[in-house]
């Protein structure tokens, strides 16, 4: 039994698809990252980025921290920063769901909303200006090696162990890309034939948590050689699959998880055999004020 909240980060369950996967020769597992204490896969990266920086002395409890986020990373950073007694300002586009903003504030973070028409790129520009002009320290998830290393140390080994070393394909949405980079690095070290599949939105689709970055904003931690295949999904496909996950599999998750599941199911249809693991990166309750689950 753990008595430390931070010990509860990671060790998330794998559940097998009972309904959606119809290929009898393929096993499809969903890794339920909503079971992390902050409710998403980003707890892993937030913990590793903050703890590693404190251990190195990169900042202290007197430092002013800032980070641009589309939501889940902000919630995770707010929670972890609160546990360590750190002050943090989180910057998001103003169209972020109400639940995300309120959750960050509940954990004690300052939340700044930037115009929605400049998106997460505008939030990143705002945070960089505060670093340049006011002495803030940015966590910088997009260029922070401790982001992907969190998944090298935890997510990858968990998948390898919990599939009894049988995983053949790993499917993950690509946003900051920390999850896919770290998990790919670990799994490829165990078996370089494991296929790593990234999920991106189709052109003109907006899927929170999945991005097709302009070149100037491409995360510095991203290494294209660690992704074997990219599958594009539409906004409508991601929404529909998020609803199906809840109704048919009992898995209540957000739109990016729906996008990853849609890609995993499309992949499963093409395989003669295999063991697929798809990341379900968060819980659906932080999307209830959006239209995601409206019929």
Can you describe this structure in just a few lines?
It comes from Pseudozobellia thermophila. This protein has 295 residues and is of the alpha/beta class. The chain has helices spanning 42-56, 72-84, 98-106, 119-134, 145-153, 155-162, 178-190, 235-249, 255-268, and strands spanning 14-16, 26-32, 64-68, 87-93, 110-114, 137-138, 169-173, 195-201, 229-233, 274-280.
Q: What is the topology?
A:
Elements: E1 14-16, E2 26-32, H1 42-56, E3 64-68, H2 72-84, E4 87-93, H3 98-106, E5 110-114, H4 119-134, E6 137-138, H5 145-153, H6 155-162, E7 169-173, H7 178-190, E8 195-201, E9 229-233, H8 235-249, H9 255-268, E10 274-280
Parallel strand pairs: 2-10, 3-4, 3-6, 4-5, 7-8, 7-10, 8-9
Antiparallel strand pairs: 1-2
Helix pairs in contact: 1-2, 1-5, 2-3, 5-7, 6-7, 8-9
The helix content is: 25-40%
Give me the strand/helix succession: EEHEHEHEHEHHEHEEHHE
Task: Profile the largest sheet.
Answer: 6 strands, mixed
Q: What's the number of structural domains?
A: 2
Low-pLDDT parts are: none
User: How many H/I helices?
Assistant: 9
Task: Give the terminus-to-terminus CA distance.
Answer: 42 Å
Q: What amount of the residues lies in strands?
A: 15-25%
Query: Strands of the largest sheet, in order across it?
Result: 1-2-10-7-8-9
Q: Based on helices, strands and strand pairing, what is the structural class? A: alpha/beta
Oligomer type: single chain
Highest CATH level, the class of the largest domain: Alpha Beta
Number of strands: 10
User: Which fold name corresponds to the CATH topology of the largest domain?
Assistant: Rossmann fold
Kindly provide the radius of gyration, computed on alpha-carbon positions and rounded to a whole number of angstroms.
18 Å
The general outline is globular
């Amino acid at each position: 039994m753990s008595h430390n909240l931070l010990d509860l980060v990671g060790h998330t369950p794998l559940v097998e698809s009972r309904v959606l996967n119809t290929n009898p020769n393929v096993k499809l597992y969903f890794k339920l990252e909503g079971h992390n204490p902050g409710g998403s896969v980003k707890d892993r990266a937030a913990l590793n980025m903050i703890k590693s920086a404190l251990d190195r002395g990169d900042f202290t409890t007197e430092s002013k921290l800032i980070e641009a986020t589309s939501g889940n990373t902000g919630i995770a950073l707010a929670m972890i920063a609160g546990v360590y007694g750190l002050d943090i300002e989180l910057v998001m586009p103003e169209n972020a769901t109400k639940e995300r903003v309120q959750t960050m504030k509940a954990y004690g973070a300052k939340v700044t909303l930037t115009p929605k028409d400049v998106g997460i790129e505008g939030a990143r520009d705002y945070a960089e200006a505060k670093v340049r002009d006011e002495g803030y320290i940015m966590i910088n998830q997009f260029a922070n090696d401790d982001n992907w290393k969190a998944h090298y140390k935890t997510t990858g080994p968990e998948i390898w162990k919990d599939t009894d070393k049988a995983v053949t394909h790993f499917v993950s949405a690509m946003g900051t890309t920390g999850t896919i980079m770290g998990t790919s690095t670990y799994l490829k070290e165990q078996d370089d034939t494991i296929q790593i599949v990234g999920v991106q939105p189709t052109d003109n689709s907006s899927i929170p948590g999945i991005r097709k970055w302009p070149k100037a904003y491409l995360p510095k931690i991203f290494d294209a050689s660690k992704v074997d295949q990219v599958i594009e999904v539409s906004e409508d496909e991601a929404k529909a699959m998020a609803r199906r996950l809840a109704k048919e599999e009992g898995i209540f998750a957000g739109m990016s998880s729906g996008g990853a599941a849609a890609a995993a199911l499309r992949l499963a249809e093409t395989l003669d055999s295999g063991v697929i693991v798809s990341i379900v990166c968060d819980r659906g309750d932080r999307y209830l004020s959006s239209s995601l689950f409206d019929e």
